[in-house]
């Protein structure tokens, strides 16, 4: 009964979205106004059409299916194959690497002789050879650093030969049962290309550290729900660490993708394109180190975003042979997600343009528009979150996106118009990750937007005296909502990243009232 009720609500939400888009196209486009109004009107409707498509894919591929994580089959001890374990490093400190190598050496396996650990060192440090030997690993270096991590791994593939490869970032420490929970998926199934486990961290992520520790890890919903749902469409995203790959699948895909700085996403897509399956599991079997400083966080996210846009450009999601339509749609949504900065900035600027200079991107009857818009908006924003039992929060997602928006909008716009960066910037970890400061540029951007929205509300309120409330009601509400979200952004800016005592990874799994109370009292 509950399942049928949820499906009914999801269908109503989808229908309300279709009605809204139809109404927008038929009755609210500013084609009778000035050219500048028409331009912004077209931009907004294009964004809304893409959002509607994304919601349709989200409904069909994520909300609708049962999200049950597959479990590894039980196999005989003698059937466990040889596995190469690659740990990639460039400039991470040795203490961090030592912990990762030690964790790799402690992974359980029926025959430890079949586990071959390699420290893939692109920093060309002689001292790491001794460190690798201490933990029973081999030290691999190459003559150059071409193609960053992808090139590093491709070189390692040439000098190793096990049929399966487990890959870990320098900070990601596997639990003892990592291989036991991943390798059996490949047994008697030659079509399994890779198995991806979630990322988790031993310290608070940047949002828990600066806003509220009573929230789940920011990426939890992606790893434990979206990824699991993607098993149905074979569009699981490979995430570059905590992953086991088939050497055969990698070879068919041409190795690790080198045409983008997001080699992981592209490699997974190339493997799935060749007819192999990607499998996502929700067992947390590796823990890493989350970045502490805002500049480091922005560097990391800009690399992910740029890399995804580069992947779309290099391989062309909709002209790429070998992918099914469902896979193309899933990858389009995943890559288009990184345009969130542009979208959020557009939605913050639009009411300001109307308040200050009268640009009208949307026109129509106030009452009719309000009923149609808020029906679909509230269903998608709150009812679905409630039905998802707090694992997802549209409000917190919007907070996260608005915080990053000014920076990511510039980065992604540059990538879209061809100002591309092929440089792979390593995310600071270990001793390089001790700084906990903010980013002045981001803070200034938030302050300017906050001030502009306050000023916009004042200007609109003054003009109401002459024109009446109808024309300015929605812009005033819109700017007020933006102002509230920007308050969260400023709170993020002016707080210092905090490392909580006795922090337990993955202890908080739901968003709720405690998430907001955590903003007021961060604890210790």
The major beta sheet can be summarized as: 7 strands, mixed
Overall structural domain count: 2
Low-pLDDT stretches = none
Q: What is the string of SSEs from the N terminus onward?
A: HHEHEHEHEEEHHEHHEEHHHHHHHH
Major sheet: arrangement of strands: 3-2-1-4-7-6-8
Strand content: 5-15%
- CATH H-level homologous superfamily name of the largest domain: Spore Coat Polysaccharide Biosynthesis Protein SpsA, Chain A
Q: Structural class, judged by helices and strands?
A: alpha/beta
**How many beta-strand elements?**
9
Shape: globular
Number of helices: 17
The assigned CATH architecture of the largest domain is Alpha-Beta Complex
Secondary structure layout:
Elements: H1 2-27, H2 35-63, E1 83-89, H3 94-105, E2 115-121, H4 127-134, E3 137-140, H5 148-158, E4 164-168, E5 173-174, E6 192-196, H6 206-210, H7 220-230, E7 243-246, H8 247-253, H9 263-273, E8 277-280, E9 286-287, H10 294-315, H11 325-336, H12 340-357, H13 366-387, H14 394-416, H15 440-467, H16 473-494, H17 513-520
Parallel strand pairs: 1-2, 1-4, 2-3, 6-8
Antiparallel strand pairs: 4-7, 5-9, 6-7
How would you describe what is shown here?
This protein is an alpha/beta fold and 524 residues long. The chain folds into two domains: 190 residues, no CATH class; 214 residues, Alpha-Beta Complex (Spore Coat Polysaccharide Biosynthesis Protein SpsA, Chain A), CATH 3.90.550. Helices cover 52% and strands 8% of the residues. The chain contains 17 helices and nine strands. A seven-stranded mixed sheet has the order 3-2-1-4-7-6-8, sandwiched between helices. A two-stranded antiparallel sheet has the order 5-9. Strand 2, helix 4 and strand 3 form a beta-alpha-beta unit. Helix 10 crosses helix 14. The protein starts with a helix and ends with a helix. The model has no long low-confidence stretch (mean pLDDT 93).
């Amino acid at each position: 009964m509950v399942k049928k009720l949820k499906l009914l609500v999801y269908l109503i939400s989808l229908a309300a979205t279709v009605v809204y888009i139809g109404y927008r196209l038929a009755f609210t486009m500013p084609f009778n106004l000035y050219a500048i109004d028409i331009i912004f009107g077209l931009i907004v409707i294009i964004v809304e059409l893409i959002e509607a498509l994304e919601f349709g894919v989200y409904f069909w591929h994520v909300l609708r299916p049962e999200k049950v994580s597959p479990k590894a089959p039980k196999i005989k001890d003698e059937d466990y194959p040889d596995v190469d374990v690659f740990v990639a490093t460039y400039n991470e400190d040795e203490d961090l690497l030592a912990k990762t190598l030690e964790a790799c050496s402690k992974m359980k396996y029926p025959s430890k002789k079949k586990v071959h650990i390699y420290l893939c060192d692109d920093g060309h440090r002689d001292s790491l050879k001794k460190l690798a030997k201490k933990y029973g690993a081999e030290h691999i270096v190459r003559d150059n650093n071409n193609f960053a991590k992808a090139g590093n791994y491709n070189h390692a593939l040439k000098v190793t030969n096990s049929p399966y490869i487990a890959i870990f970032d320098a900070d990601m420490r596997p639990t003892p049962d990592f291989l036991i929970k991943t390798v059996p998926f490949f047994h008697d199934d030659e079509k399994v290309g890779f198995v991806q486990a979630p990322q988790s961290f031993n310290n608070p992520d940047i949002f828990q550290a600066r806003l509220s520790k009573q929230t789940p890890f920011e990426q939890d919903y992606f790893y434990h729900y979206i990824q699991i749902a993607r098993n149905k469409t074979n569009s699981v995203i490979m995430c570059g660490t905590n992953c086991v790959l088939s050497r055969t699948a990698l070879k068919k895909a041409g190795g690790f993708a080198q045409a983008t700085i997001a080699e992981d996403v592209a490699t997974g897509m190339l493997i799935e394109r060749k007819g192999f399956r990607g499998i996502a599991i929700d067992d947390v079997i590796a823990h890493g180190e989350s970045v502490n400083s805002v500049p480091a966080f922005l560097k990391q996210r800009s690399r992910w975003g740029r890399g995804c846009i580069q992947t779309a450009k290099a391989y062309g999601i909709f002209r790429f042979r070998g992918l099914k339509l469902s896979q193309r749609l899933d990858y389009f949504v995943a890559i288009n997600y990184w345009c969130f900065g542009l979208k959020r900035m557009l939605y913050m600027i639009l009411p300001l343009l109307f308040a200050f200079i009268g640009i009208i991107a949307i026109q129509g009857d106030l009452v009719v528009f309000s009923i149609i818009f808020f029906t679909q908006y509230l269903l998608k924003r709150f009812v679905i979150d409630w039905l998802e039992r707090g694992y997802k929060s549209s409000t917190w997602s919007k907070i996260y996106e608005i915080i990053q928006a000014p920076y990511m909008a510039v980065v992604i716009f540059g990538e879209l118009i061809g100002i591309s960066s092929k440089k792979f910037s390593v995310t600071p970890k270990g001793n390089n990750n001790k700084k906990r400061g903010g980013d002045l540029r981001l803070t200034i951007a938030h302050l300017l937007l906050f001030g502009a929205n306050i000023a916009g509300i004042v200007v609109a309120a003054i003009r109401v005296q002459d024109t009446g409330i109808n024309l300015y009601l929605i812009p005033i509400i819109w700017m007020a909502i933006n102002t509230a979200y920007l308050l969260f952004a400023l709170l993020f800016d002016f707080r210092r990243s905090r490392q909580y005592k006795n922090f337990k990874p993955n202890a908080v799994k739901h968003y709720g009232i405690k998430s907001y109370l955590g903003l007021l009292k961060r604890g210790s």
